[in-house]
Amino acid sequence: MHTYSIYGLCLHSDVPFSDLPAGGDVPDITIRYEKLNQSELAAGERTGQRVTGRLYYEPLRSDVLFEIKDGCSIALDPLIPVEPDVLRGWLTGVFMSVLLRQRGYLVLHASAVAKEGEGIAFMGQSGWGRATLAEYFCQHG
C-alpha cells in the first residue's frame, strides 16, 4: 500500500503515484483493487453520474469497473490490462473529482493563469479552449 498526500487529504493506494508527496498513517481516502460484480453495480440505483453515495460510471469503454463510495474510497476492477498512466489519469481526474464532490468540495473544470499576485480562471466543458486560452496568455505575458 502506497501512502500520499493529495488535496490536503491522506491517500492510501494500491496504485502508485510517483509525483505525489508522501502522506500520513491514517487514510482519508483509499484506492484499492477489488473484484467488483458488474451486475450488482448495474442493478443498484443509478441515474447517470450520481455524485452522492455510490457511483458506477460507464463511459470508460467498460475497461475498468469502479465504485466510488461516500467520499472515502475508490474500488477498481480492470477488466483488461490498462496502461498505468491512463489509470492514474482517470483516478486523479474523473474519479477524484467525484470523490471530492461526495465530500462536499466544489470541483471546477478550469484552467488558470496568475501574474504578479493576481489570477484569472477559465471554466467550461472539454473542448471549449480553456487550456488554449491559458497557454496563449502565458506565451504572451
What order do the helices and strands come in, and which of them pair?
Blueprint: E1 2-6, E2 9-13, E3 29-33, H1 38-43, E4 64-69, E5 73-78, H2 84-102, E6 110-115, E7 118-123, H3 130-139
Radius of gyration: 17 Å
- Element order, helices and strands? EEEHEEHEEH
The DSSP helix count reads: 3
Distance separating the two termini:
43 Å
Q: What is the topology, as strand order, of the major beta sheet?
A: 1-2-3-5-4
Which structural class fits the helix and strand makeup? alpha/beta
- Helix percentage range: 10-25%
Beta-strand fraction estimate = 25-35%
**Low-confidence runs:** 47-52
**Quick one: biggest sheet?**
5 strands, mixed
Overall average pLDDT: 83
Number of strands: 7
Description:
The structure is a single chain. This protein has 141 residues and is α/β, with parallel strands linked by helices. It has two domains: 31-102, no CATH class; 110-139, no CATH class. Helix content is 25%, strand content 28%. The protein has helices spanning 38-43, 84-102, 130-139; strands spanning 2-6, 9-13, 29-33, 64-69, 73-78, 110-115, 118-123. Strands 1-2-3-5-4 form a five-stranded mixed beta sheet, covered by helices on one side. A two-stranded antiparallel sheet has the order 6-7. The radius of gyration is 17 Å and the shape is globular.
